[in-house]
Write a structure and sequence with these properties.
The radius of gyration is 17 Å and the shape is globular. The longest helix has 17 residues, at 111-127. It folds into two domains: 8-99 and 148-171, no CATH class; 100-139, no CATH class. The chain is of the alpha+beta class. 29% of the residues lie in helices and 24% in strands. The strands form three sheets. The protein has a four-stranded mixed sheet. Strand 1 (2-4) and strand 2 form a beta hairpin.
Amino acid sequence: MMQHHNYLINPLLASPSTGNWHSLAFLQWDIRRPPRRAARVSGGAISNSHLSQPGIAPAVTSLRIISDLLYESWVLAAHNPTGVTVEDILTVIHEQFHAPLTIPEWECMSQRERTRTEEVFYARCSASRNFGRTRNGGVRRVDCLLNTTTFAGLSSLVFRNNRWEIVLTLSRDFSARHRDA
């Protein structure tokens, strides 16, 4: 487990780039899909026992998730008065990346970023079960990630500014398939 001040990141969530190999399998998950339906562990579906595990041990009640891929306005924070769980962390990641892109966020993008985001958006619409409904739902934050949608773990747990922060890493989806919305 990744360690900081005697706090450990759950091996399901810990980034393999930390150099630590874990006896438990690493979580495989494309954040475009809901974690309960799509996350896999050791080739099988994620279980309730996996999801209910503490995300950090000893338990923390609040955890801010940061990444270079996030716009400043995108706040990913998991809260649970009994301790943030694996499910709390995965759920907040999924929900925040599936939030609609705001007009100010769109306007801050370069023309190239907008064009690439639109391409991903329309590919997502085309791959969905209901093109019109998906298109009417608008561009989502996840569309801005292009194909960088594979969960690659959490690392660098620190206590800063009176809160716990952890770094989210995503990697490219080399299959480049856009699954249902």
